[in-house]
Structure formats: C-alpha cells, structure tokens
C-alpha cells in the first residue's frame, strides 16, 4: 500500500468516525459509568461505541490481517505485525460537558512500536498527525509542520494534566506536585489535546497517570515527530501506558524525570 493510499485511508477513518460521533456532541445521549459508581467517574457514551465500531469495520474490511486494540470493544489479532490502537473519544468527560477538548485517537503499531498517529477533533475540524520523524497540523487555518518549543527550564514551562485527582494518593501525587510547583503555569482538563498543543509549541510538559495504550499510542508519533520526548516516569517506553511524561525538549524531560523520581 502506497504512502498516499495509507494517508487517504487514515483520513477516511477520521472522517467516518467523526460523522458517527458528532451527532451526539452537545446533544442528549446515554452515558454510563465504567467505574460503577466509584471515583473518579469513568464515563462511556453511545458516541464512543459508534465511533469505534465504524473504524473497526473499515479496518477489518481493508486490512483483514491487521490487529485492532480499542477502548470500547477490546483486542483482536493482538499478535499481528500491524495493530491499530483506537480511542474514539479521548476526553469523554469534556465531551459530555460540551467542551471541545476531546479527540479521536488513531494509532498504528508495527511490531509493537508506534509508527503513526492521528488525533482528530471533528467539531473544530483539526487533525494532528505524525510518524515519529515529522508531524503536521491540518485545519481551518491551513496546514503546517508541528515543532515543539524547546524550553530547558521548568520555571518557564507551561504544564498540563487531565485531572490531579487521577494521581494516586501518597508518592504519586507528591511527585506530580513537585513538578507542578516548579512550572510557571498548569492547565487541567486537556486530555489528548494537551499532547497536540505540546507538539504545536504551545505547551511544554504533559504529566499523566494510569493511562492505557489506547490513550497514548497515537500521540507518541505526533509528539516525537514534532521534536518532543514521551516516556514513562521511569524513562521507559510509553506505548504500554502507565504513568506518562511528555516534554518539548530533552533537557525539560530530564528535569521533570528528576523531580518525579526524587
């Protein structure tokens, strides 16, 4: 399959999932709690399932030998050379609140390593994509290459995390607190959008805990393609999820790791 055909296929995944999801946004729909009343609230909606279903159907029809790992419908063909990693709505809490800080994550791994990622925000008409070597923005304001901002000092950095309450009590939350206290500004509730803003040079640092592969795989090639660094808190590969730190520069990443593991 040629590069052009592949790009067209991924764009079709984004377009069709967006068409399935958007009718639910800022409308009445059914929301369930996957945490079954526990804290924090872990919502899933009809839109999540509709978006993933249409992507899985298109992948299975076009690439029957590929595997798929999705948030809503599990894994099939996990041992395949190529595995698609899907999160139809990353940022469901924002979605149900009518806030556009959510996106559809479409990732592809080869031999377990992320090789391509796209974040689609259909309400805003924005697409952020990357292959680990370069990254690109396409949207209402045109097309441009994405490049991170090369801050070296935490005191100058803008940081983001989805919700501080997602960090575990004790050491985990204290570690995050040390980094937050060292930065200039912190923003919350950004989910996948924070990583794309890091790739775009607007945010310098993203710190998260308890992520699943479908929360991060698509974002790794975007951040790395823009010149950033993404690892676990102990400096390991981020593709398996867990506690994640992404930074716009190697020096900033090293500074954050030092505080996280201090």
From TrEMBL:
Keywords: Hydrolase, Magnesium, Metal-binding. Mg(2+) 2 binds at residue 90. Mg(2+) 1 binds at residues 71, 87, 89, 215. The keyword Iron does not apply. One of its GO terms (biological process) is L-histidine biosynthetic process. Its EC number is 3.1.3.15. The keyword Hydrolase applies. It comes from the Bacteria. One of its GO terms (molecular function) is metal ion binding. Its cofactor is Mg(2+). Belongs to the inositol monophosphatase superfamily. It comes from Methylobacterium nodulans (strain LMG 21967 / CNCM I-2342 / ORS 2060). This is Histidinol-phosphatase.
């Amino acid at each position: 399959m040629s590069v052009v055909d592949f790009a067209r296929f991924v764009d079709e995944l984004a377009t069709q999932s967006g068409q399935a999801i958007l009718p639910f946004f800022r409308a009445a729909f059914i929301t369930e709690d996957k945490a079954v009343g526990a804290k924090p609230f872990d919502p899933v909606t009809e839109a999540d399932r509709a978006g993933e279903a249409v992507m899985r159907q298109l992948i299975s029809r076009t690439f029957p030998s590929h595997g798929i790992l999705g948030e809503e419908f599990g894994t099939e063909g996990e041992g395949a050379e190529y595995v698609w990693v899907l999160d139809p709505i990353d940022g469901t809490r924002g979605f149900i609140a009518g806030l556009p800080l959510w996106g559809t994550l479409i990732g592809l791994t080869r031999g377990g390593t992320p090789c391509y990622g796209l974040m689609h925000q259909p309400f805003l008409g924005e697409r952020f994509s990357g292959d680990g070597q370069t990254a690109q923005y396409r949207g209402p304001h045109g097309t441009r290459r994405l490049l991170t901002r090369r801050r070296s000092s935490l005191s100058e950095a803008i940081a983001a995390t989805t919700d501080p309450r997602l960090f575990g009590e004790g050491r985990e939350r204290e570690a995050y607190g040390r980094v937050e206290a060292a930065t200039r500004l912190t923003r919350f509730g950004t989910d996948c959008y924070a990583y794309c803003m890091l790739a775009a040079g607007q945010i310098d640092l993203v710190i998260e805990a308890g992520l699943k592969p479908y929360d991060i795989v698509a974002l790794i090639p975007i951040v790395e393609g823009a010149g950033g660094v993404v690892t676990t808190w102990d400096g390991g590969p981020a593709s398996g999820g867990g506690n994640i730190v992404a930074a716009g520069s190697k020096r900033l990443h090293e500074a954050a790791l030092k505080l996280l593991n201090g």
